[in-house]
Every structure is written in C-alpha cells, then in structure tokens.
Amino acid sequence: MATKKDIRRQKIKYRIRHKVSGTAEKPRLSVFRSNSEIYAQVIDDVKGVTLSAASSREKGFEKSGTKSEMAAKVGKMIAERAIAAGVNTVVFDRNGYLYHGRVKSLADGAREGGLKF
C-alpha cells in the first residue's frame, strides 16, 4: 500500500520527468535513494539506454562514514564512469526527492568528479 508520502513523491516525479529528458548529447542523471543505499544512473531517454551506473551496493564500495558521505562517493564514481563513456554534461533528475541531504551530496560529488549540470 502506497503511503501519502510515496504518492506525493510520485506526483513530483512525474512533473519533473515531464520537463526533464535525456538525449545522447545531454543524458539524464537519475538518482534513487532507499533508506540505506543510494543509486545513480546516466540515461539516454531517446534510445532508452543506461550509459553508466553506480551505487553504494557494489562490490568493493567502502561503506564508511555517514550516508551523505557515501552519496558523495557514489557521485564521484558515476562522474568517472560517465566521463569514461564520453559524457561530460548531464541533466539532473532528482526523481521526486528534495534537493537536500544525500541527493545534494551525490550531485556535489558528481560535480567534483567533473560532470557539468
């Protein structure tokens, strides 16, 4: 059963996705956050292809520090992988979450890694 909070996030998500779309030149950096983990994908919506992905659940990922610090590490990882895939500029899709806390840390980490928003 979906809670009011989930329904609200879905409405915000649909409103954002109506305006934000990724292309080959400027793909979409999508963020998903669970209670304990964080995931990021660089997506080309025209082809329907994920160009690169990173998460805090990967093997070899060092889970030390706060959740925000781990999100910043994931942001740097996704930036490295996106640049290796030939992507320098992205459109940020916060996926209905507030631009605050872990989502902001991931975005800042991606900027430090060299991605332009």
General description of the model:
The structure is a single chain. The chain has 117 residues and is of the alpha+beta class. The chain has one domain (4-112): Nucleotidyltransferase, domain 5, CATH 3.30.420.100. Helices cover 38% and strands 20% of the residues. It contains three helices and four strands; from the N terminus they run αβββαβα. It has a four-stranded mixed β-sheet. β2 (38-44) and β3 form a beta hairpin.
**Low-pLDDT windows of residues:** none
- Could you tell me the CATH topology label: Nucleotidyltransferase, domain 5
Beta fraction = 15-25%
Helical segment tally? 3
* Secondary-structure element pattern, one letter each: HEEEHEH
Distance between the termini: 35 Å
Rg measurement, Å: 14 Å
Main sheet: strand order: 3-2-1-4
The profile of the biggest β sheet is: 4 strands, mixed
CATH class: Alpha Beta
Quickly give the structural class.
alpha+beta
General shape: globular
Which helices and strands occur, and which strands form pairs?
Elements: H1 4-19, E1 28-33, E2 38-44, E3 49-55, H2 67-84, E4 91-93, H3 102-112
Parallel strand pairs: 1-4
Antiparallel strand pairs: 1-2, 2-3
Helix pairs in contact: 2-3
